[in-house]
Specification:
Elements (H helix, E strand, L loop, with lengths): L3 E5 L4 H12 L5 E4 L4 H11 L6 E4 L2 E4 L3 H7 L5
Parallel strand pairs: 1-2
Antiparallel strand pairs: 1-3, 3-4
């Protein structure tokens, strides 16, 4: 299983969609609430260069936003 991290905020609808996408496929992930955890927010910006969420990390690869085709590719779900 790939290591998946989701940097998100509670009010972000795209963050909810990413988590739903992962949950539906039984893919475990660590979630970081960057609205409350400033250290994780800084980590997210350093890794992605982005302030916006969601930022998803799959085995060290950064995906900005809910880029479903890219996530499917990195997670080995692409057909």
């Amino acid at each position: 299983m790939p290591e998946v991290k989701v940097y998100s905020t509670p009010t972000c609808p795209w963050c909810s969609r990413v988590k739903q996408f992962l949950d539906e496929r039984n893919i475990p992930y660590e979630e970081y609430n960057v609205a409350e955890d400033m250290a994780r927010a800084q980590e997210m910006v350093q890794k992605s260069g982005q302030m916006g969420v969601p930022v998803i990390e799959v085995d060290g690869e950064i995906v900005i936003g809910f880029d479903r085709p890219r996530l499917e590719e990195l997670l080995g779900l692409a057909e």
